[in-house]
Write a structure and sequence with these properties.
The structure holds two protein chains of two kinds. By secondary structure, chain A is α/β, with parallel strands linked by helices. Chain A has nine helices and ten strands. In chain A, strand 7 and strand 8 (108-113) form a beta hairpin. Chain B has two domains: 11-206, Rossmann fold (3-Layer(aba) Sandwich), CATH 3.40.50; 207-324 and 332-337 and 347-429, Rossmann fold, CATH 3.40.50.11900. The chains are: A alpha/beta, B alpha/beta.
Chain lengths: 247, 430
Amino acid sequence: MYIGVDLGSRTVKMAVWDGERLVEHRIEPSGFEPHRQAEKMIADYRAKVVVATGYGRHLAAEHFADAVITEIKAHARGISHEFPGCATIVDVGGQDSKVISLDAAGRVSNFQMNDKCAAGTGRFLEIMAASLAYTLEEFGRAALTADQEVQINSMCTVFAESEVISMKNRGIAREEIARAVHSSVADRLAGMLARIGHGDPVAFSGGVARNPCMVELLEKRLGARVLVPELPDITGALGAALHGTGM
Amino acid sequence: MATEFEIKPYPELWAGLDMDVPRFDKARLMLGEAYAKTYLSQKNRPVGMAYFDTMIAEIHGGRIQELLAAKAEGRPVIGTFCVYIPEEIVLAAGGICVGLCGGSQGSVPDAEKILPRNICPMVKSAFGFKAGRICPYFQAVDFVYGETTCDAKKKTWEILDTMVPTYVMEIPQLKRQRDLDLWLAEVKDFKTKVEEVAGRTITETDLAAAVKIMNNKRKALQRLNSLRHHNPTPISGKDGLLIEQIAFYDEPMRFTKKVNALCDELEERIKAGVAVPTKNAIRVMVAGTPMALPNWKIHNLVEGAGAVIVNEESCIGTRYFKDLIDESAATMDTMLAALTDRYKEIDCSCFTPNDERITQVIKEFRDSHAQGIINYSLQFCHTYNIEEIRIRQACEREKIPYLFIESDYSAEDVGQLQTRIEAFLEQIGG
């Protein structure tokens, strides 16, 4: 068994690869000690190699992991496995968003990552959803139903939240505000894609790829279909497990 | 070893300089700890680094005593913030030129009580050192000679002038003949000001001697840089950067001697096949804005990830020492012309166009046998931030792995930078 663990800012993801296929995956909250959470998750498996990725990768290596790779390399590996020939990855995680260019062999040739603030990340969406009293699942679906679109100007989470509150108090429909929040993230991602000069096809990974409105808006901006893996959250963990097979 | 290191305290000396002694003493302990952790934990350091460790241990005392002794003899001590201010002229008048402090997050809150928050961290840090009275160099100088290389500095001088006499040299932003004429006139004004404070006229002999001293210092730094270019490199990038930083406050002749002694040792190391950190370490070159002491952020992250930095294309780096002054001139006018000829070769991003710098970055990449370039820009440094586009395009054209980092002195983005730097090294390593 080859195990990949992705110790992210919000959740810990695990993927178990038996050499031919994904046999198990799990997602748990990161908690205060993500490496202990990860250790618990892998305890039931007899692993040949454990590869860690994500923010807690070095901590995991201190405690149990055999090797570490960055989430950028892990997503490249995971997506290239799911979609061979994929040229660009958009990964939106809890704490950051990334755009990764791949060469013909699926290796990272360039990447962009958001700056130090929460703008354009899963955390941004989470805070805005809470401000509009939606669960995350409802948030994306509700945004899809809006028939008009308003504009959110601020990308800063703190200021954008103020903007959302003032919209609520002007009587703007909840769905429209939800749509505006999604649009602002999509614009940010489209900007990163333009900056890197992306190639096609584009795949979307990370937990935010499960949000149907984000996928639709991204496709609209790119004017093309976006590939979404069946389990977008575990792309990094899967990539880490696959990296272990070559060790 | 790491626990024994201490930046030596000089509370009486500091009190005499009207410093905030209790606060500065805390800063001293923090810097000492950071230095021990960043520097003394390195394995396989050259023996010759001991001198530079001492220069750090004595940064707030021994060197300050030397400055005060010079002042007592009536020699001018001048603080600067830019490699455009001709040190040769200060030396020729028997004076001392020091690059002032500006590389620490610690003094930024002092500056933000007065200055806008959204300006360059180096300007804020420097200003904060004076505002908080927490830099002995700032307290010791006769005056500050600023310049007009960026808007943040240019306007900050007006405010700084209320705390310490601050003069401003106009640096042209183009390099046409009429701009160079202006620049020469500015250098002459600088000479007059220095002569006034020194109470003596600079002779041709004085200037010739000073030019020689500075050329020798620059040659020593060039020599060190070319030894770092050897593959495998015999010295860490952190140590290389440290020496480039110390170049701005050490006594030039002593410094030159110590750098050359270190270079002799590095030559022996190369012969013996010593590699720092290991033979296969990925070689990275850094280009961009200056990294003022104690800004070791990028070097720490890159070398912490097992790679090695082999070149700094920066003001605290090659931009400071890549060019020499022609020593053949004999009259004051021709000597000053030769001096400005050398200084106009500095390819700061405040110039437009600045094609020379793009060429220089690629040249240094080739010379240093680096495998990738990290372009580093301080936050809100508009000219380097925008010039980034042209550096990036040049790297794309030349197929050079390239990473751009915009950052300040705070620790809040270290996690993200670590991921980006490690991913960049993975990209290079395949």
